[in-house]
Amino acid sequence: MMCTMSMVYGQEQISGRVLDESGEGLPGASVLVVGTTNGTVTDLDGNFQLSVSTSADLTLKVSFIGYQSQEITPDGRSSIEVQLQADLQSLNEVVVVGYGEQKKATLTGSVSQVEGRDLQNSPQPNVSNSLAGRFSGIIASNRGGEPGHDGSSFTIRGLATTGNNDVLVVIDGVPGQIGGLERLNPNDIESVSVLKDASAAIYGSRAANGVILVTTKRGKEGKPVISYSFNQGFSSPTRMPDMADAETYGSIRNEIAYYNNPQGGMNQVYSEDQLNQFQNGTDPLNYPNTDWAKAALNNVALQSQHNLSIRGGSEKINYFLSLGKTGQDGLYKDGATRYDQYSFRSNVDAEITERLKVGLSLAGRKEARQFPTTGADGIFRSIYRAYPTVVAVYPNGLPSTGIENNNPVMMATEAGGVNENPKYVFNGILRASYDLPFLEGLSVDGFFSVDESSDRSRNFSTPYTLYNYDPATEGYNPVVVGGGADQQATLSESHYSQSMTVSNIKLNFKQYFDNHFIDAFVGYEQSENRTHTMGASRLHFPTIETPELSQGGAAAADYDNWGSSYNYTRKSFIGRFAYNFDEKYLAEIQMRVDGSSNFPEGERYGFFPSVSAGYRISEESWFRDNLSFFDDLKIRASYGQLGNDNVGQFQYYDNYTFNNRYVIGDEVVTGIDLIRLGNPNITWEVATKTDIGFNAVWLKKFTTEFIYFQQDRSKILTTRNASIPGTSGIVNPYDADPLVPSENIGEVKSHGFEATVGYEHTGDFTFGVSGNFTYAQNELVFKDEAPGVLDYQRETGRPLNTYLLYNAIGIFRTEEDLDNYPHVAGAQPGDLIYEDYNDDGQITADDMVRTEYGNIPRITFGLNLHAAWRNWDFAAVISGQGQVRQYVLPESGTVGNFYSSWADNRWSPNNPSGTYPRVSERASSAVSGGLYRNNFWLDNSAFGRLKNVQVGYNLPQEFLDRFSIGSLRIYANAFNLLTVTKVQDYDPEGSSESGQFYPQQKIINLGLNIQF
After folding, report:
1. Are 537 and 605 contacting, i.e. CB atoms less than 8 angstroms apart?
2. What percent of the chain has pLDDT over 70?
3. pLDDT in tens, 422-442
4. What is the 3-state secondary structure (H, E, C) of 22-48?
5. C-alpha span between 272 and 251 (Å, rounded)
6. How many angstroms separate the CA atoms of 1005 and 1012, rounded?
7. Nearest partner of 181 among 427, 368, 346, judged by Cα
């Protein structure tokens, strides 16, 4: 504190400044004359003025929450400088919230934040995969691991609507910035915040599903710091199914034939001698035992990341510049899959005058994506279906026809052509702020952002040759596959472009009045989004040497083209008023009026308010005196209404399409058909959110947070088609979409709680642990279900995303079992027993029952660990989920191979105690499979996994000084290293009902960081 004294009307005027531990002015600090009630608080720059009657024996007590109080005696000195030292640093942390920042101590909303440096501990180049387990409330599910398409899907506090559940992502203040979160360079991120309750109402019509705020790094005053990091990763599948070997599959084929024709015996397809030859491997040409995953996939795929950044600044200009390069290979042997990303970022902030500050942020990236012409799901479908009794590649190097002329060994390569899918993204933000001179604390700021993206696709599909071996002639018969019609090359090209501009201006007021602090703003924001799609294709290329659209077939039927475009706009009026008294009594009001072109006139604007309050009871003297082990205890609550405008456009108009052609006279006329009636009254989906919680810091080392939340989602836009009979004529004869328009009739309720407990220890050996737990349950209150649906089958009154299935209660072991219990037509010994739920003596569709859980978990949890000792450091994240189910029925039978878990444990005449049902021609249409969807194939996909772990070592500074190196750290980390789950055959985060998808990845990584 710097202190000067002067005489004012018989009193001494004391002025000074309070500084924090970094030397910055500390606003809101209390300055009190000891033994009196005379005092004041510092302004936004840490300055204060105080009148006293005399300076004799004067002692000032300076205090601020989270800092150690100090008493100072001026002793007539003209200046005294003192810095307050942090006591509870966590309370002074600044948390990024909508359109600003707030101190963690005075926060009244449910906001969680993770620092960018923690995300850098993960070897996952996709940022979205690094958030799971780090804080409560957010459910991140990684559904697949294909490079370029390996991001996680998010819900905040679970599903809350039958409509769109997408979370709004705000990057550097720009709502819905084009390019999103997934492919940001993790080295560029300063922090990630999640707004989970009514605190998101500041984003109005887009906030109902929660908001993720990403803040990128900016410059800091000081000499330039040059940082370079490199890491090399090795990725492999977390889990893939073991498939039946050739002998087992041959036996299964025999069993299927026997079930179809019992009189033919048990060796109708393969003799015992042939089965033995499959097993002993003496004739791999005629009796192979093919592991198709081994034939098509590498054990390990490589990935690497490079990042170079410069950070620094002067008193007037600060800057952060970075370049990044990421490369990922696919798992396929000689595969066409490759992902390369090149990114840059430039954040520059300048103080033009004492009052005027400007900033310019430029960022961009190129995502060079290349894939086979067959998608990953198709390739893995062929891997799992292909018979182990068929050769993948003959000894002479020729590829076989695989399964139905699909050989995944070839499908994954460039033999069938290449699908090039590059994406380009640019983001630019110009921002400025000006402190108005006529009132202290009053300022104006704003930004203008421009986003552009270009997503291109060029899919050139070419024919190639597979071979069938003929044992009779010992010849290899060629089969041409791939390409398009008539096995000639085809080319399809498309271009999807997207642009967005956002303008924002705010008038801010932030000031202390004695112990009263006000932080308020009003603002205006508008945005415009435009998209454009165009594409063309051509068939019958006479040669693959000329892959250009102009070189395809000449017939009129060989050409095709398409295109579409749309634009929509938003206008918003925003306001927030935050108040606290002595950082003890806290209150905040948020308001937003949003207008969207997605809705008709009269319904275009919505009002979204919220209110929150907090009481830091630990600031009461009576509380501190009696419960001194509490360093901070805050009780808080929030309530507000938020919106969701993420719905299809132009629903308030009748929708038409060019559909059929008619011949009228000698002329062909294109018909125009009505495909959806308009609803001129559609409006916002509304979320009403309530939160009650508390935050505590106790014994200076422990932190605790508990939150109860509730949400009512109303006016969900959905169709009323189920209860409208076809006799009404209001049906759509052209496709599955109903002709009736959507209405704001849906309703969902959800509730749950979050809990977080942490412990931090400092010293020579520093360590910390933090655990979080979330329980989120939803209930579908109303959707338009057909009137005749049975109560126990209705979706209404039950959680979203549940399954309607028969309850499998066992396996018919004998004919006697069949005679003693109701069964479906065609059931045989070895088939599943279905519960006669309604007890009517027969198995019908009325016996199907809704499951308790769906494939979005009710429970998620995480455990975060970190430690440091001397030059060593350690960090780990464990994440998991519970009360979640996933239906998976493998595509098996004569149409494809079986998981070993089924094949090895199947019921058969030779294994009547098998725990899996008998095999059949096609699982999807079997009595024990897809013909009667049942919960035997419903897996408990709960898991706990070591999501991330890292060990690092910082080389000694005395050694680095010899080479003028600021720091050098080497480390090893891993992602998805260990998983504990009951799921046997696929990753429990998967959502494919056939199990046929590119598997999630386990990554082991080595890297270094160096600074100059």
Report:
1. no
2. 96
3. 999 999 999 999 999 989 999
4. CCCECCCCEEEECCCCCEEECCCCCEE
5. 9
6. 24
7. 427
